[in-house]
Amino acid sequence: MIVPSLIDLGMRPFFQQQLSLEELESSALGRVIELHKSEAVLLAGSEVLRFKLTPNLEPICVGDWVVFNDERLIRVLERQSLFQRKAAGSANERQLIAANIDTVFIVSSLNGDFSLNRIERYLALAKETYVEPVIILTKADLASDADAIRDQVQLLDSLLSVHCVNALDSDDIAVLKRYCQRGKTLAFMGSSGVGKSTLVNGLLGHDAMETGGIREQDSKGRHTTTYRAIKWLPEGGLLMDTPGMRELQLSDAKEGIKLTFAEIESLAEQCRFSDCQHINEPGCAVLRAVDTGELSTRRLDNFQKLLREEAHNSATLAQKRAKDRAFQKMVNSVQEQARSVKKYQ
Fold this sequence. Notes:
By secondary structure, this protein is an alpha/beta fold. The chain has helices at about 15, 20-25, 115-130, 145-155, 170-175, 195-205, 255-260, 260-270, 285-290, 295-345, and strands at about 30-35, 40-45, 45-50, 65-70, 75, 80-85, 95-100, 105-110, 130-140, 160-165, 185-190, 215, 220, 230, 240. The strands form four sheets. The protein has a six-stranded mixed beta sheet, with helices on both faces. Strand 12 and strand 13 form a beta hairpin. Helix 3 crosses helix 7. It is globular, with a radius of gyration of 23 Å. InterPro entries: G_CP_dom, P-loop_NTPase, Ribosome_biogen_GTPase_RsgA, RsgA_GTPase_dom. One of its GO terms (biological process) is ribosomal small subunit biogenesis. Pfam families: RsgA_GTPase.
């Protein structure tokens, strides 16, 4: 592929219909393929362009479609999908992870770092944005119980695509290439050290990403991807590698959580009380399912934990947005008063 078309980059009617006639005549369209602290890198046809990020530009992330001219980025087109989270730490900020994704590879290794709870977190993010999730379990060559662990993951959702792979085996990687077709954008999510960069290199056919080792004492990995970047795949798709996320906190993802735990939502409809919290209420169908073994205690506990976390994070972000609006209103009022005073001087 020498000069990629907009269709190669993932252009579709959803984005095209957002452009005005004026923008079509006087501006150009590009897709963000890399994002650094102070600049964005766009791909627009055969050109790779760099633009400084200005304070007045709305938040931007890898995968965005943007309108630009020779001097600056003008605006970001409405996104078809967006992965975001509450920023790591205590700051009440939202962090954009990836935009306009078609399929997300949720990667977990089959070593001591494997966690069903963590996979459910990523599934909640994917289902909130209606992006197709695919579970990739790596280091299959080092695990004696790979099939048993795969069965555990499959029990989360019978329709979920789950693959056990050795990221260094080209035959194992080949099964993933059907997700990598022309115009499709894939994202990788998972903790550090689970083999995301090795998978990226395998899909690309060459070493484009540095790979890092695992600390033997706790099976934790080192971050080997320092920024989000889109790479071309031989099959014509685009692949995004995201930094390892050690702290994934949910916000504005209530619907995604409910879809991830759909069987609990279905059971809840049979509870005696419509506002049942599934703690110790009489006539609770969810607790009855736990007692009979139909539902695991682990899964119910994680469902309730994620709902509490999502409610807390969404509330704090909403409060910050309200404060920001109030501050901007005050600034606008002061500026208007200053203009009025200057006018009559």
